[in-house]
Specification:
alpha+beta, 4 strands
Amino acid sequence: MIAHVVFIKLQDKATATEIKAQLESLPPQIPEIKHYEVGIDEVESSRSFDVCLYSQFDSYDTLKIYNDHPAHVEVLAFIRERVTTVHAVDYTL
């Protein structure tokens, strides 16, 4: 099992709810997703990111299918217009 964790810093945190909704629209469209959580930061410390995605996939092959899926690509384009920084970590569980 592969964990895929993404931290997103937004240009305007007011868009966090819309980004969360966009991301949460993906699991019904992409069967390779085994687990999917999207959270919006509530503490707002100087080290906080605004949105976090935690997801799981059976393998790096299924993670690639997710990454290349047209619905995911569309959501990424939406997000990229609104971010300042994105960090990701992928690891084997």
